[in-house]
Amino acid sequence: MNLPVKYLLGLLLLPLLLAACGKSEDVFRQESFVFGTRVEVSIHVEDAAKAETAMRAVLRRFDELHRKLHAWQPSELERLNAAFAAGARTAIDPELAAILEDAREHSLQSGELFNPAIGNLIRLWGFHADLPQTAVPDGEKIAAAVRAAPSMRDVHVENGMAWSDNPAVRIDLGGYAKGYALDEAAAILKRHGVRNALVNIGGNVLALGTRGEQPWKVGIQHPRKSGVIATLELGDGEAIGTSGDYQRYFEAGGRRYCHLIDPRTGGPAGGMQSVTVLVSGDRAGTRSDVLSKPLFIGGPQALAEAVAQAGLDHVLAVSADGSVLVTQALPKRLHWSEPRQAFTTLKTVR
Q: 72, 102, 162, 244: which could form a disulfide with 274 (CB 3.0–4.6 Å)?
């Protein structure tokens, strides 16, 4: 499938900056296309046969998750959404049950700015499709979808069954699934004895170990220019995720409408161009994916408070006016593309 430029930019969100990219003697790499985006797995080769076996296992798992969690093609998630809309209870497998519970917890912690229950709003805006629409939806339809107040609070899971109190709930895990898949990939690679790897799912990246004697390096895409705004090195178990208005969007009337919907207004969030978070520790992949969303939707005025509430030390944001905002701990790890890059340090209080 040929994707338009607006989509390809999203796929290049965090390009890998590997020395001697391409035909590299010390890195075994394979690409695929799942979750509607490009996936790249890079393994620092110690044993080529082991690397290839691990790679196949990771890509098989990605295909499984694609079939389970896709938001608008036939999937386990779509079957669940149909049951919610009908007011029916339905059986779900333990993995999907755990995902829903975890997504609910993240949603509540974010004050519901991260809200996977607003799939109907996302569909109304045309982002439940491989290609975006080009027209703004009817205002009353947007208002009605907001009044329906879909929330993860409405979702219940018990004894292998799931149901919703609100038929307006339609689960979309677009802000969760890539990060979850990163954690799954890391677990699979470790089980296969792979200690050094980099997994990139459409710009959400997780590192294991190093690339030989050097750390893995990634770039943070500039939201308005070709190329990156900065690069940094990832340590073992660290993950980085970015939410940006240049990934999936359309333009109408001279205005950009991105796929990151503010559940409070029902419209695309407009205060940010991009937000990048760097996290480490348990389930770093999932958290890197989820935590960037409420920071983006909340906008620059609420950023410092939201960063502190999320317990994040490393955040880079570009506001709608192009101002660059960086947490105090991050600049020492960044290598700016522009040597005199101007930025404002976020003052956070915990």
A: 244
